[in-house]
Amino acid sequence: MVEYNEKQVKKVDVWRLKKYLVKAKVLDISAGKNIIVLNDDEAKEHDIYSGFRTELTIKNKKLVAIVDVGHESIRPGEVGIYKDMAANNGIKKGDSIEILHLNQPASISYIKKKLDKGTLNDEEIHTIVREIMEDKLSEIETSAWITAAYINGLSDDEIISLTHATMESGEKLNLGKKPIVDKHCIGGVAGNRTTMVVVPIIAAAGIYIPKTSSRSITSAAGTADTVEVLADVTFNIDELKEIVLKSKGAMVWGGGMKLAPVDDKLIRVRHPLSLDPEGMLLASILGKKKSVGAQYVLIDIPVGRGVKIPYVERGNELAKHFLRVGEKLGLKIEVIITDGAEPVGNGIGPGLECLDVLDVLGGDGPDDLRHKSSLMAGKILEMCGKVPVGKGYKVAEDLITNGKALSKFREIIELQGGNKNFKRTDIPIGKYTHTIIADVSGSIFHIDNKTMAKIARIAGSPKDKGAGVLLHRIRGDRVERGDKLFTIYAESEAKLDFAIKALADLEPIEMRKMLLGSIR
Amino acid sequence: MVEYNEKQVKKVDVWRLKKYLVKAKVLDISAGKNIIVLNDDEAKEHDIYSGFRTELTIKNKKLVAIVDVGHESIRPGEVGIYKDMAANNGIKKGDSIEILHLNQPASISYIKKKLDKGTLNDEEIHTIVREIMEDKLSEIETSAWITAAYINGLSDDEIISLTHATMESGEKLNLGKKPIVDKHCIGGVAGNRTTMVVVPIIAAAGIYIPKTSSRSITSAAGTADTVEVLADVTFNIDELKEIVLKSKGAMVWGGGMKLAPVDDKLIRVRHPLSLDPEGMLLASILGKKKSVGAQYVLIDIPVGRGVKIPYVERGNELAKHFLRVGEKLGLKIEVIITDGAEPVGNGIGPGLECLDVLDVLGGDGPDDLRHKSSLMAGKILEMCGKVPVGKGYKVAEDLITNGKALSKFREIIELQGGNKNFKRTDIPIGKYTHTIIADVSGSIFHIDNKTMAKIARIAGSPKDKGAGVLLHRIRGDRVERGDKLFTIYAESEAKLDFAIKALADLEPIEMRKMLLGSIR
Q1: CA A290 to CA B469: how far, in whole Å?
Q2: A64 CB near a chain B CB, below 8 Å?
Q3: Residues of chain B contacting residue A139, judged by C-beta atoms under 8 Å apart
Q4: Which terminus of chain B is more exposed, N or C, with fewer CB under 10 A?
């Protein structure tokens, strides 16, 4: 339509034209990622704002960095370079750096589409995940993505795409063996260390179970924290492969390898509002299971007061969603709905939970943990066809009774760098203790997962392996005034004092009451 | 329920117990707000994460600071203190500082409620606004709030509460006079400097119009940028009062005073996704109008291709929403829907737009700007009862023709620190120019607001007051091959070149085409 006075100009991206030249100023601060600090006014003039991605050209080398502004010490014509970034790239004070505002990530319009209740296609979902992995999205944008998925939901097809994208964001375990099974618990139940019982049972039965677990975020201990009492849990994917090929089972920390790493990037953004959109939950769990090559997956959905899923009905819905999406992903899934209203096992905290596990593997231990673990192991053995339906529980129990599960457990501990001949007395248990006594007689109506976790954390869990809470009684128990209810363990007197003081505001155990209120 | 071995312990907030002592390390970086840097592992141990708020005790003085982590240079036992924070509070290297994790802001649960499609009450909305003002919410949380308001919407009562909270977040103008009128344009139209014509007309008619305007964010110029060509625009609320009491009108930058400052805090979060939830838009605009004491407000909703409101029907809905909420707020509102598909006036960029305004006030100038300004001024005069309905337009036109508007304009410019005897030739206009010529004959079908703004910005607007685009033809004009279409102005040859190069990818003017596509 228009005719130029000049010769034909080259086709260019107009926003890439806004580059400008500044001198480096190395800052005495490190971030572990590329951050540059620009002068506020100067950045605005170039349409660059905090959180934007820029491309830097320094001595013909190109780098991508996130922009920060508003630091008063950066004058126009300067760019502040974080110390580690300067060191890693040989940038010195006074070096000329060209700043180029990168285009808006493509994801922005896809996130906007989801905000407007649209449905994203496979490529759009993959682009969002890729750009999150490339650090191209700010926390503001990522928060909008999660919020939109939370409110507007994700379709089954979107979840399938997200699962594949999540999987492709990281590494894969290629065992070259079959069948491979896995398990996952939705979480929120204190204690509940079934993995450490189920994995040795399944592996002892000759089935591959390369189990990766998480560390605690808000609980008293994650499985990884508890295994760590006896062995290492941080391994890369090749080391995991070696362990599993030898022993058939492993109990490692998922964060040690790059399985579905996009998830780790989202946790920081999901955490403040505890936002866990169902579609993202499914994609995250199933993406990790597919990443380790699992064909059979048992999902445990605990329901009850204070856990993520409050009612059985809601648990059933979620279970159906797992089955539907799992089928499309080529996964054979079974879901169990379990009572999650109270802690499972007696210990809460890494060392105390570890004792429960050893007791169960020794043929004793808390009834609930032993029963739940055998139930789960049995289901898995039935699912993958190892034993006929209806026989799994018995086979699992037998593997405990005949000592094969415990010796498999010792074998895995050794392969993970621990001492296979550990004794019960090797488990660290805090030497500062305080026991809470019933001041009324009655029956126990409720033991609160979150409150118990809070007490254990204040006492030092999971960092202090010996810190935590040991329950002497469980729900439904009849207690008399003066009976012991639970004991707090800590590794320092100060932390024990904190935990005791905290009790003043907390009600970890509720007794049954007849009168629930009076209205007049 | 429990009985303590110790004496009765004091009621304490359990999360407040997790305090710890560290030594200050002053960092060579400033942020203009309180930021501390903690060692990553140590912070985690105390349940403190990036973005959390902490209370610091330093020599018995308490401060609130935002936490950053992950800087490799901070070791356990140390806290990094930004240079300005250290200077402002007399913190020296090695000072002992007690770190205390503050409770989660109350807003978090209210935001969660909105995410779950709940309705917030007045107190909940006020709490969110207050905590945003107190910097207690992170960008992640604020982004979730805006996203939730965008997807789930805000009820009229929520908008009323938000308007009051927005208003209360800042200062108020108490003129002690009546009537006070105001106007607002939803924006997106290039040029369109009606405020600079309407304000002097209204003030010349003896009506108070303390108009605050914004600067450009993505456009070529905001009203504040354009007024600044002739006068200062940054005044505090007392100075604004003085100007308006003298001349009845003012044309100042809203950002210069603390009117509804919560809005400024949200812009950074809304900008990346261009999220502008309707309820927040209403609360923001009406909160500002109430803050200056306006009783009568004229709202201009431009509709058309490329502006915020694409269709008249959508404009009507928004207009009704304004009237409904305005009535509950005790504001008399009138809304006009205008054609916003093309720029209003010939100039795009501060200096060029200023010339249009001066020409219109001189009785000449672009027809569209003159007509729209008289229409708006007339409506306002009718709304507040100054002139009978149906006479406003004529009265407004007369105030231009008899020179009273222009002399009022000069008076306001002088009160705002400018030279009242400015001449047309005083306006800075870039000396580097490039004119685009039609390469076909035909009629002009569309002139694109956003594309023209982009060209003007690449040429240097709004920072370079003389940079911009001057349109020689408007929509519907018949042009012959070789006719001038528009001229780009820049203050440097390099910026002009950037703008010319950018044209290769842009289509700022579309000619009418008969064949729109062929499918086979």
Answers
A1: 57
A2: no
A3: 138-140, 143
A4: C
**Domain map (residue ranges) of chain A:** 15-101, 107-153, 181-257+284-415, 432-511
Positive or negative: CA dihedral B334, B337, B342, B345? negative
Q: Which two tokens stand for residue B245?
A: 């009491």
- Model ipTM over 0.85: no
CA atoms within 13 Å, Cβ hemisphere of A324: 11
CA-to-CA separations, A346 to A286, A438, A484, B392, B440, in angstroms, rounded: 30, 17, 13, 82, 85
Q: What is the pLDDT of residues A124-142, one digit of tens each?
A: 999 999 999 887 888 888 9
C-alpha dist (Å) from residue B478 to A87, A192, B474, B475, B513: 62, 79, 9, 9, 13
> Is B305's Cβ below 8 Å from some Cβ in A?
no
Q: Chains A, B: CB contacts under 8 A, how many?
A: 222
Catalytic pick among B122, B264, B276, B497: B276
Do the domains B432-511 and B181-257+275-415 match in fold?
Answer: no
* CATH 1.20.970.10 at A107-153, yes or no: yes
- Amino acid making up residue B491: E
Crossing angle for the helix pair A195-204 and A367-383, to the nearest 10 degrees:
40
Cα B267-B340-A107 angle, rounded to 5 deg: 45
Residues B376, B378: Cα–Cα separation, whole Å: 5
Note the pLDDT of residue A21.
83
Q: What is the architecture of the domain spanning A432-511?
A: Alpha-Beta Complex (3.90)
Other Cβ atoms closer than 10 A to B401:
10
Enumerate residues 6+ apart whose C-beta is below 8 A from B304.
B310, B339, B340, B341, B342
Q: Report whether A352 contacts A335 (CB < 8 A).
A: no
- Give the residue on B whose Cα is nearest the Cα of A482: B3
CATH code reported for the domain at A15-101: 2.40.40.20
- For the domain spanning B16-101, the CATH number is 2.40.40.20
Q: Which residue spans within B161-284 are E strands per DSSP? A: 181-185, 209-213, 249-253
Catalytic residue among A156, A276, A339, A477: A276
Contacts with B306 (C-beta within 8 Å, 6 or more apart), sequence order: B188, B341, B448, B449, B450
Q: Does residue B150 register a pLDDT over 90?
A: yes
A458 contact residues in B (CB cutoff 8 A):
14, 17-18
**Domain A181-257+284-415, second-level architecture:** 3-Layer(aba) Sandwich (3.40)
Residues of A in contact with B84 (CB under 8 A): 72
Q: Are B466 and B430 in contact (CB under 8 A)?
A: yes
Quick check: helix, strand or coil at residue A20?
A: strand
Q: Which two tokens stand for residue B225?
A: 């940028």
Cα–Cα distance for residue pair A454/A348, rounded to 1 Å: 10
Minimal Cα–Cα distance from A310 to chain B, Å?
Answer: 16
Task: Check if B276 is active-site.
Answer: yes
* Residue A177 pLDDT grade (very low, low, confident, very high; cuts 50, 70, 90): very high
Domain formed by B181-257+275-415, architecture: 3-Layer(aba) Sandwich (3.40)
Determine the Cα–Cα distance for residues B363 and B402; give it in Å rounded to an integer.
9
Q: Which residues pair with B348 in a beta bridge?
A: B469
- What are B211's two structure tokens? 């108009």
Per-residue pLDDT of A279-312, as tens digits, reads 999 999 999 999 999 999 999 999 998 888 988 9
Residue type, A273: L
